[in-house]
Amino acid sequence: MYKTSNGQAIKLGKELGKGGAANVYLHASDKSKAVKIFKPEILQKEVNLAKRIEKLNQLAQIADIEMPFGNAKKTIGAWPKDIVKDLSGNVVGYIMDTVNGGIDLAFIVGARDPTTAFLKYRSDPNYSSWLNYFLYQGRGLKNRFVLSYYLSLYFDKMYKLKAKNGARIELDICNFDIKPKNILASIENISGHNHIVPYILDLDNLTLKDIKHKLSPSSAQFTQEYRAPEGPIDKYYDYWSLAVLFYQLIFNQHPFDAVLGGTRFSDGTERDFFIKNKCFPWGRNRKFLSVGTQNDFRHGNFLKISSELQHLFIRAFDSDLPSQRPSMDEWSRGLLDFLQNNSVQFDRLFRYK
Ligand SMILES: Nc1ncnc2c1ncn2[C@@H]1O[C@H](COP(=O)(O)OP(=O)(O)O)[C@@H](O)[C@H]1O
Ligand SMILES: [Mg+2]
């Protein structure tokens, strides 16, 4: 049995998903709400969890966290709305809005084969629209650029948070544990048009820093594939994770996968080793590198995107300093320029085999 901050009982409905830290359920008597319940071992470590949830809840009341889609506005993530306590009064989780009809980006990133993509969700009413929108080919490719573009706008907003009245909020938020599983995308009909609408999840993991205080999880979650070489510190760490995600959405390949080390880097094939040694296939060491024959066409598609976007990827994965990685603002401009370039034929742009 669980309770809200003012003592109302919460009954858990069906499970919506789970991650490394928690399970998320539908609220049994209010399906518009989702309930995140942390695992005991996480609660033991996260002594300031209640404080962070409270702070995020307050922030959600005052900050402009909406994006326009057609004539509607969507909240850009699942923000904590209330804490959840167990019967002895310990904080064990929080309540947020349910994201309906969303698919996590891990499925979109890997959606290459129409016979297996989204198969787990074959009976979901959205199955065919996900196939239609996100399959890694022709039309799906353009939508993956669109998705990356929206995400760059979303995160730009997060890093330059403003109040609803437009005043800047003096607060840095970073270390989102950005990875496909922490982002959902749904196709929503808004006044007669279908829009791809992303949602950022797992917001409890982030760090909030103002001039006086820093509020962060005692053991921030991270995921190796999205972890920048320097580890989670600031927004530049997130810029790395986001660039990996954009690369995966666009090229259906992790930037450091299927890269071979040639002579100079022959002592390691681990992805981590390549990341640390600046072995991005299009970076400074490219003359020492090759890409695996099976997958080379995927990295090879890099040459088909605009040089503006190529440079953003190179800066993201091959800069000397984390602060040289492109900002979300630069990504959104680069992606929009490419999307608006009428001479780009997205359905014929890439090789898929
Ligand atoms: N508001 C929500 N609406 C719908 N599904 C959600 C929501 N929040 C989380 N989920 C699902 O639950 C999974 C785990 O949630 P998450 O907050 O990422 O937990 P963890 O901190 O353990 O990673 C997500 O990957 C997603 O599939
Ligand atoms: Mg998660």
Q: What is this structure's SSE topology?
A:
Layout: E1 2-4, E2 9-10, E3 12-18, E4 22-27, E5 30-38, H1 40-45, H2 49-62, E6 66-69, E7 72-75, E8 82-86, E9 91-97, E10 103-104, H3 105-109, H4 127-134, H5 138-159, E11 172-174, E12 183-190, E13 193-200, E14 207-209, E15 214-215, H6 235-251, E16 259-260, H7 271-276, E17 290-291, H8 296-300, H9 307-318, H10 328-339
Antiparallel strand pairs: 1-2, 1-8, 3-4, 4-5, 5-9, 6-7, 8-9, 10-12, 11-14, 12-13, 14-15, 16-17
Helix pairs in contact: 4-5, 5-6, 5-10
The structure holds adenosine-5'-diphosphate and magnesium ion.
The site of adenosine-5'-diphosphate has 19 residues, from β3, β4 and β5.
What portion of residues belong to β-strands? 15-25%
The largest sheet is: 7 strands, antiparallel
Q: In angstroms, what separates the terminal alpha carbons?
A: 52 Å
What Rg do the Cα atoms give?
A: 21 Å
Contiguous runs where pLDDT drops below 50 for at least 5 residues: none
Overall shape: it is globular
- Taken in chain order, the helices and strands follow as EEEEEHHEEEEEHHHEEEEEHEHEHHH
What's the helical proportion of residues? 25-40%
**Quaternary arrangement of the chains shown?**
single chain
- Global structural class: alpha+beta
| Count of discrete alpha- or pi-helical segments spanning 4 or more residues | 10
Average pLDDT number:
92
Bound molecules: adenosine-5'-diphosphate, magnesium ion
Q: Which strands sit side by side, in order, in the main sheet?
A: 2-1-8-9-5-4-3
The total beta strand count reads 17
